[in-house]
Amino acid sequence: MTNIFQRTNLLLGEDKMEVMAQKKVIIFGIGGVGSWCAESLIRSGIQHLTIVDFDKIGDSNVNRQLHATSRNIGEIKVEELRNRLVEINPAANITAIQKVYNEETHASFHIEQYDFIVDAIDSIQSKIHLMRMATRTEATLFSSMGAALKMDPSQIKVSEFWEVNGCRLGTFIRKRMRKGELPAKAFMCIYSEEILENKGEKAAQDKAVDEHGIRKAVTNGSLAHMTAIFGFTIAGLIIQSIYYDNENN
User: Fold this and answer.
1) Distance between CA 189 and CA 127 in Å, rounded?
2) DSSP structure string for 211-229
3) pLDDT in tens, 71-123
4) CA distance 29 to 69
5) Cα-atom radius of gyration of the chain, to the nearest Å?
6) 51-66 b/e with 16+ CB inside 10 Å = b?
7) How far is CA 117 from CA 23, 29, 96, 135, 173, in A?
8) CA-CA distance, 65 to 52, in Å (whole number)?
9) Distance CA 70, CA 85 (A)
10) What are the pLDDT digits (tens) for 167-211?
């Protein structure tokens, strides 16, 4: 075993490390949550990881996204993150896909081939679609609710989707979900009940309406420690799932 995993091996044991090396994980969305989740998984011994994101790095990403720096603004997110992860473990099989996940593209990702699916998508419509599709597979799904407008890490919680309380995003998604097909099985979500308000100079602009009287899309403030804890928590849930799976003993 490569020496970079000696501390992980001490805790988990060689048998579990071998199981972890065989598991396949796909992360949809590698922004403030997904990027930290990806790094934690690779540092822990996951060897087969697919990262999906259509976007390029922007200056507004630098405050919270692992791979974003002042030097690589304008570069493709998945490629920048893959380069970093390969430096951590050159033996890892990391696939970078620059593509949007949605109803039209979902079949191309072959999510049925994975053991774990991570939803760190911002788009509500795509998020709901992934929840529906992922729960049809044998994979274990973990979903991140909104990490923006949060500051207090002690309020972060993990609950089953239908038990998420005090989270605006979770409430909105459940309402939308009930209007169509429900998830085929239970899955866990990370969320926070904390609700702060934007205080910066852009907050007034975000509350404005367009020429048709429709409220413009809101850009919410966020902090690195909160998005990172969300991502690390999902990584921890995956590792625990592997560790405590009796079938792998």
Assistant:
1) 12
2) TTSPBPPP-----HHHHHH
3) 999 999 999 999 999 999 999 999 999 999 999 999 999 999 999 999 999 99
4) 18
5) 18
6) bbbeebbeeebbebbb
7) 11, 11, 15, 9, 18
8) 14
9) 19
10) 999 999 999 999 999 999 999 999 999 999 999 866 545 555 444
Q: What percent of the chain has pLDDT over 90?
A: 88
CA angle 249, 5, 71 (to 5 degrees): 130
193 by Cβ neighbours in 10 Å (0-12 / 13-18 / 19+) ranks as middle
Q: Name the 3-class secondary structure at 94.
A: strand
Strands laid side by side in the 140-144 sheet: 93-97, 48-52, 24-28, 116-119, 140-144, 188-192, 156-160
Rounded (5°) CA angle 207-57-50:
115
| 230 within 8 A of 156, measured Cβ to Cβ | yes
CA dist 138 and 111 (Å) reads 10
Distance CA 96, CA 76 (A): 10
pTM (two decimals)? 0.92
Q: Which two tokens stand for residue 239?
A: 């590792």
Exposure of 243 in the CB half-sphere (CA atoms within 13 A):
13
Question: Are β-strands 156-160 and 188-192 bridged in parallel, bridged antiparallel, or unpaired?
Answer: antiparallel
- Helix extents (H) in 103-184: 124-134, 168-178
- List Cα–Cα distances, 79 to 44, 66, 71, 97, 234, in angstroms: 21, 13, 14, 8, 22
CA–CA separation, 210 vs 230, rounded Å?
Answer: 33
